[in-house]
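May I ask you for just one protein sequence along with its backbone structure tokens in two labelled lines?

_____
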Amino acid sequence: MDMIERCAETGLPSPDFEERAGIFVTTLWRDWLTEEAMAHLELNDRQRLCIKTLKAERLITKMGYKDLVGCSPRTAARDLDNLLKKGIVERRGSGRSVYYELTLNRAIIVPNVP
């Protein structure tokens, strides 16, 4: 079994592979959005459900968020903007093709709780 399959089985992001100055580098990402870390980020229940879904589904649209948590389009936009400002998600695409993904390798200031 390879690293990508093992990461997928455990719900972790796929590793990054790159070449830096002639050296092959593999980066394995940990799940930085643990329950303890999320407690410090002051997220509401809708946002927590969104993160849980993003860990499994990998992306979500504003309409998908609205349907998932049962809120208005305005609340969905506000919640997603809040997640974006906190560095938890990244916006991809443009216009009607906008979707959100979890930030995988962001240095975020969250206590590393054991």
Confidence is low (pLDDT under 50) at residues 107-114. The chain has two domains: 1-30, 35-102. Residues 45-57 form the longest helix (13 residues). The helical segments are 3-9, 35-40, 45-57, 62-69, 73-85.
